[in-house]
Amino acid sequence: MMVLTLLPYPLRHFSTESLFCDCQLEWLLLWARANGVRLGNDTLCVHPTHLHGLEVHNLRETQLRCDEPLELPLFQLIPSQRQVVFRGDRLPLQCTVSYLDPSVTLLWHHNGHVVHS
């Protein structure tokens, strides 16, 4: 087991692209309040979806729950393996994404050109 010791400083930043705000993060809120530490405004929840974009320092302990289904970001491409396709055959492609940041753009390319339909 690894023990993390955080010394109190006035401002802490925990900016990440995958911050899970669940019951495992409750200790951070309690520690920050007990030590007079302010969490930076850039410390935002990414998961679960209903807390996405919220600043951690504004959360209440009751919002940090672990009794809901685990919500992991998912990116799935079907088929997931290389395929052999002969001229005239069809190969349906399916892309499923459970969460995309608004800055992300997905494009399909074929032979160096963007596929529009």
TrEMBL record:
Provenance organism: Hucho hucho (huchen)
UniProt GO BP: cell surface receptor signaling pathway
Family matches, as SUPFAM superfamilies: Immunoglobulin
PROSITE patterns: IG_LIKE
Record's keyword terms, sorted: Leucine-rich repeat, Receptor, Signal
TM stretches of this protein: none
Family: Belongs to the G-protein coupled receptor 2 family. Adhesion G-protein coupled receptor (ADGR) subfamily.
Upper lineage: Eukaryota, Metazoa, Chordata, Craniata, Vertebrata
Residue stretches making up the Ig-like domain: 73-117
Name assigned to this protein: Ig-like domain-containing protein
GO cellular component: glutamatergic synapse; plasma membrane; postsynaptic density
Recorded coiled-coil stretches: none
